[in-house]
């Protein structure tokens, strides 16, 4: 659709701030009702502008996925920034510099890294032990008390490492039904509660934190959990809608892609919007077809979700091929923009490195500032 923004000539990621703020409000209220602290993950939006919204809901500590992102958010004066990724020992020097300016916590999964930090830290740094309770990607297995206690013993050799608690990201919820997500949530909370009970007498201030958006969205309360750290909920996406975490109406970002060709005889639309814009994350539809995004019509006040869906059926580096019914084909023209809801909003935002809100104003993104590349 033609929009009142003549500056848009290339793929642009639109942000519906009203939807994002509503998503934030709902998650914040749920956490508050459960007396659970919200420590959101900023890996989805990666924006200082959006980060300021969280402060209005009492958020004082945030989570990021890299030391470079932590540096980017440092000017906002957070109470603490947690880096939720197994700590990379090659970054100890950079961690020391950052910890001199900002309270930082890291994630540990083995005693060797704990030992390197104990020997080389110049500033006090907090740490969480990441626990694997079924996902299988990273973390200490929940029953591996030998590794857990080796990390704890190693950290106690110095006053530079402060144990914060246990962290679980149950990423397998992203491949589960709502009923399975509920079961995983209970499995996760049981594992965290068991660990807290076991180590609470020695570490009375330890907290337990979980962080996946499907669990935090579907679960109605977080009773017994000290902290939750979801990230994707601020935007949501087609994957979350398919899981039942949200509706398509909750999705707060859409890629505006220029239409460069229309093949009416094939019911196809070719757009400038490929893997470098959307990423190549794919959603398998109930009929077995692959979808790399779903078509919407973008207007001044948001976007229109279509009654008869049209999808991005194939994708390459710069190209996207949309499969659309005749009713949609008849509505579009060369040189217009068409919207695409992302399969994975975190990756799409990371690819695009910036946003435009519905007022036509640019919104910042960490990658768009090039700070990551300057510091390599």
From TrEMBL:
Gene3D superfamilies (UniProt xref): Alanine racemase (3.20.20.10), D-serine dehydratase-like domain (2.40.37.20)
UniProt GO molecular function: D-serine ammonia-lyase activity
Domain D-serine dehydratase-like: start-end pairs: 252-355
Entry-linked InterPro entries: Ala_racemase_N, D-amino_acid_metab_enzyme, D-ser_dehydrat-like_dom, D-ser_dehydrat-like_sf, PLP-binding_barrel
Native source organism of the sequence: Echinicola pacifica
Protein name: Alanine racemase
Sorted UniProt keywords: Lyase
Domain Alanine racemase N-terminal: 19-235
